[in-house]
Specification:
Elements lengths: L24 H9 L4 H13 L3 H5 L6 E2 L4 E4 L8 E4 L2 H14 L17 H15 L8 H13 L4 H8 L4 H5 L6 H4 L18
Antiparallel strand pairs: 1-2, 2-3
Length: 204
Amino acid sequence: MLKKKFVYEVKRPRKDKKLPVVLSKEEVAKIISSVDNIKHRAILMLVYSAGLRVGEVVRLKPEDIDSKRMLIHIKGSKGRKDRYTLLSEKTLEVLRAYWKKYKPEKWLFGGAREGRYLSIRSVQKIFEQACKRAGIRKEITIHGLRHSFATHLLEGGTDLRYIQELLGHKDSKTTEIYTHVSTQSLGKIKSPLDSIDLKEGGGD
């Protein structure tokens, strides 16, 4: 006689849907401007200007920078997919100055150990120190630069589908989260309090 199998459906606890922490353009400028080391500055500029993941920026090779087409070739990223993203003119200027000084060979940003790329932890530290110097009090990691890139593009009128392509998101729903932190729509709504005439407070 066959024993009946009982399958119990275990419901997974719901994950908190947290919105990404985003920097303003002024805050991004403060962070980048606080960095004197050209290698560190180039890394932070690349992450923000191209919307890179930290794991992508450390694995860049010199040949991935296409200055003729003003594109960056990201190879074997999340989901083992290749993609192209933007190369900004300001970032290219800094990269050229960095190239002259360091002349990188295998990896664009070499690590302490020969033949190895810079560690993710090192880049996180560079960002943390830059935030401290810039007086940024937001609880934010270097991934916040990628979030800020996407949000600022959206606020500038770039279509969500293009942003999805640049970020390398498989699912459009992942990209749609930026509509919740963008000031594109919310910034146009005025609080009802601002349309009410208030009398000055009477003190005690």
